[in-house]
């Protein structure tokens, strides 16, 4: 796709160019002023370096500066250095206008960033041609800079729009699963916040810092709402049962992890370039019921064989499930949930994640309060 063609902004409108002329000789200023005004330019004039610097930086900035080299006090080289050192004036092209004819003088000016070099006595046709050339080059540079800035802003806007659409789509899919499990309420929003908290708390941990980059944490947070997408495949009589499941029903319920992972895997196959968040969503959906000691499901993974994304979701999911009311149970007190998680560090849960949970526990409680289910 040709982005420049698709996103091309309106062309710049022509305007009268303002030029700054600098010379300590009044007669030279008069000649330059008359010549340039006759050619249709607006002109500012300065008879010394300090005035030139002030006029270059204030008000309507000049599009081009014609600068004499040999001036008392601050010469043209010093003025050019000051112009280039100031962010407000560094991009204004400068033409040296001077009686100096030595090659070393010209090289010195070019080394400081002068755009062109015109020797006195001035030939009007040559000067106007050089001015026109430099103004056209500046216009092209400005147009390219403005188009690039506009294009970058437009691409950023569209990326933000796409990310918003993606986030809404993820939440819609997650809510589809949750509508079949009506007691979970705001479970999605809470677990998403818990996972981000845990991940950010482990960013300095030597075992996890290489993985938990800001980009990874953003993807992880975006993926978290899909952890129970597989519940859409569980029959209503099991999903909505009031009371505990029997062994046969529990066997069916446990399949939601693999069902969710499989659904996301099918979505990945449909795309030539799968979205990165889908890979994390598949990990979380598949393995967030695994236990650190290998006693979980569906694959009995243990330790670091369980992806970090799933280990983080395990703590977030269990905390929220225990703290929330379900059709088959009442909500448990927060301190009891805290003790349960801490007591199963190294068996059910990754010890590093539990340690992060303990440090973040006040924030967990605040999230639970802020996104509490309606009575």
UniProtKB/TrEMBL annotation:
Q: Which GO terms describe its biological process?
A: phosphorelay signal transduction system
Domain Response regulatory residues, every copy: 18-135
PANTHER family in the record: CYCLIC DI-GMP PHOSPHODIESTERASE TM_0186-RELATED, CYCLIC DI-GMP PHOSPHODIESTERASE VC_1348-RELATED
Native organism:
Methyloversatilis universalis (strain ATCC BAA-1314 / DSM 25237 / JCM 13912 / CCUG 52030 / FAM5)
Q: Which residues are annotated with the PTM 4-aspartylphosphate? A: 68
* Domain HD-GYP: from-to ranges: 162-373
Signal peptide limits: none
InterPro entries on file: CheY-like_superfamily (IPR011006), Cyclic_di-GMP/3'3'-cGAMP_PDE (IPR052020), HD/PDEase_dom (IPR003607), HD_GYP_dom (IPR037522), Sig_transdc_resp-reg_receiver (IPR001789)
Q: What is this protein called?
A: Response regulator receiver:metal-dependent phosphohydrolase
The UniProt keyword set, sorted, is: Hydrolase, Phosphoprotein
What Pfam families does the record point to? HD_5, Response_reg
Q: Which domain of life is it from?
A: Bacteria
Q: Give the molecular function GO annotations.
A: phosphoric diester hydrolase activity
């Amino acid at each position: 796709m040709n982005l420049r063609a698709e996103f091309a902004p309106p062309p710049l409108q022509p305007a009268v160019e303002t030029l700054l002329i600098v010379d300590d000789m009044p007669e030279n200023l008069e000649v330059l002023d008359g010549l340039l005004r006759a050619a249709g330019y607006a002109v500012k004039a300065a008879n010394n370096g300090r005035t030139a610097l002030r006029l270059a930086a204030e008000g309507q900035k000049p599009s081009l500066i014609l600068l004499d080299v040999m001036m008392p006090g601050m010469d043209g080289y010093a003025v050019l250095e000051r112009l280039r050192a100031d962010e407000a004036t560094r991009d204004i092209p400068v033409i040296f206008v001077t009686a100096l004819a030595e090659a070393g003088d010209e090289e010195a000016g070019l080394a400081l960033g002068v755009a062109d070099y015109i020797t006195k006595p001035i030939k009007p046709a040559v000067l106007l041609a050089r001015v026109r050339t430099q103004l056209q080059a500046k216009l092209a540079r400005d147009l390219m800079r403005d188009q690039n800035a506009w294009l970058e802003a437009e691409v950023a806007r569209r990326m933000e729009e796409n990310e918003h659409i993606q986030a809404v789509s993820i939440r819609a899919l997650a809510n589809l699963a949750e509508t079949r499990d009506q007691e979970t309420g705001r479970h999605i929003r809470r677990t998403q916040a818990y996972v981000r908290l845990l991940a950010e708390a482990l960013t300095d941990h030597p075992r996890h810092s290489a993985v938990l980059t800001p980009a990874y944490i953003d993807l992880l947070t975006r993926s978290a709402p899909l952890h129970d997408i597989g519940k859409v495949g569980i029959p209503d009589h099991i999903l909505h049962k009031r009371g505990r499941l029997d062994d046969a029903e529990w066997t069916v319920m446990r399949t939601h992890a693999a069902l969710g992972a499989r659904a996301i895997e099918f979505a990945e196959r449909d795309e030539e370039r799968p979205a990165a968040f889908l890979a994390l969503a598949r990990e979380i959906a598949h393995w967030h019921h695994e236990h650190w000691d290998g006693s979980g499901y569906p694959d009995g993974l243990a330790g670091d064989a369980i992806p970090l994304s799933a280990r983080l979701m395990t703590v977030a999911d269990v905390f929220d499930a225990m703290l929330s009311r379900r059709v088959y149970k009442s909500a448990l007190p927060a301190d009891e949930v805290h003790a349960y998680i801490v007591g199963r560090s190294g068996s059910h849960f990754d010890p590093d994640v539990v340690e992060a949970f303990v440090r973040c526990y006040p924030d967990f409680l605040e999230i639970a309060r802020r996104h509490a289910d309606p009575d």
